[in-house]
Write a structure and sequence with these properties.
Elements lengths: L1 H25 L1
Length: 27
């Protein structure tokens, strides 16, 4: 269970970085 709870915060942080990267690539 903690394995899914921990990655959630890490994934959220990575998603924010990925979104910025995708936005930069899209533009």
């Amino acid at each position: 269970m903690f394995a899914t709870r921990l990655p959630l915060k890490f994934l959220k942080k990575k998603t924010k970085k990925k979104i910025t990267f995708v936005n930069t690539k899209d533009e």
